């Protein structure tokens, strides 16, 4: 005889943890990864999962340290909400209801109380048209907050999180899509656009794949489908802009990241090799090879002590 018992379903193990760029806490003790509907918090010392931030009802599409409090993170989701967490204790502090699926989230120390999100263009219900908007987060005691103060910053941006980056503490942002690089200056409220030719000669492919901004200099690094990296300068003068080209990757550059002091640029792609370029002396490179699978994302801790690579094999 088998005793009849109610079937109990238990959440266990392993959803994808490399869907989005991971985040390393300010003290380098924790690694936070978007994982399905949740955010997993790992100890960098023991590698165990110490917290799971549960609350979203759809795919988590971004995790971001709150600039004004190093013990808190924002998460965004396709469920149309941004949530604020105390990640060390696993406590949900606030839920901001946006009402549209969110693809990615950004913030900068110079925009206090504001987060920037990429979401579908409201007027256009086609799912392939996206815009970057600024969301002013209301300061109130309520745990569930409807956000109505939303202003458009850029139209027609990529839904890929690595295609948008903030430069010089949030003075400007760079957005790459297709063959166009757009740089928006917040003070001037002005955009400059730079175009590359559709180059199929010699198998060259100029399409942008990712972008990163130097933390101190006016320099934007862009990755391309043909494995090239371009360093753009003088882009606040439309006619005087310059770029230099670096080339080591044989296929598309999937991720670029500057170290916090800006001394190095990290790049990765299908070669499973982490490449470290010396900023200002780009002919000097260091390689960390044989990492096991294609690199999809690169993250650096705020103190520059740890690098983290995400890979296509999870």
Automatic annotation (TrEMBL):
Give compartment(s): Nucleus, Nucleolus
Main location (coarse class): nucleus
**What keywords is this UniProt entry annotated with?**
Nucleus, Repeat, Ribosome biogenesis, rRNA processing, Transcription, WD repeat
| Leader peptide range in chain numbering | none
WD repeats, residue ranges: 53-95, 201-232, 246-277
What is the recorded name of this protein? Answer: WD repeat-containing protein 75
Species for this entry:
Xenoophorus captivus
């Amino acid at each position: 005889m088998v005793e009849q018992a109610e079937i109990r379903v238990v959440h266990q193990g392993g959803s994808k943890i490399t869907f989005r760029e991971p985040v390393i806490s300010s003290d380098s003790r924790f690694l936070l990864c978007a994982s399905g509907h949740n955010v997993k918090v790992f100890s960098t010392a023991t590698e165990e999962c110490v917290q799971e931030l549960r609350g979203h009802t759809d795919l988590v599409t971004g995790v971001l340290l709150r600039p004004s409090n190093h013990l808190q993170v924002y998460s965004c989701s396709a469920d149309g909400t941004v949530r604020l967490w105390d990640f060390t204790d696993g406590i949900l502090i606030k839920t901001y209801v946006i009402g549209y699926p969110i693809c990615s989230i950004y913030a900068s120390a110079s925009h206090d109380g504001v987060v920037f999100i990429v979401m579908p263009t409201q007027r256009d219900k086609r799912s392939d048209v996206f815009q970057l908007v600024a969301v002013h987060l209301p300061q109130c005691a309520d745990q569930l907050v409807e956000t109505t103060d939303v202003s458009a910053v850029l139209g027609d941006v990529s839904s890929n999180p690595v295609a948008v980056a903030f430069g010089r503490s949030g003075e400007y942002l760079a957005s790459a899509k297709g063959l166009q690089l757009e740089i928006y200056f917040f003070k001037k409220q002005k955009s400059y656009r730079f175009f590359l030719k559709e180059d199929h000669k010699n198998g060259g492919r100029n399409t942008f794949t990712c972008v990163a901004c130097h933390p101190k200099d006016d320099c934007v690094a862009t990755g391309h489908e043909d494995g090239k990296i371009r360093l753009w300068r003088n882009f606040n003068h439309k006619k005087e802009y310059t770029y230099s080209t670096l080339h080591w990757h044989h296929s598309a550059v999937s991720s670029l990241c500057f170290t916090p002091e800006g001394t190095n640029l990290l790049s990765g792609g299908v070669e499973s090799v982490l490449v470290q370029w010396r900023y200002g002396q780009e002919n000097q490179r260091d390689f960390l090879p044989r990492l096991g699978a294609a690199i999809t994302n690169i993250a650096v801790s705020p103190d520059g002590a740890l690098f983290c690579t995400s890979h296509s094999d999870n």
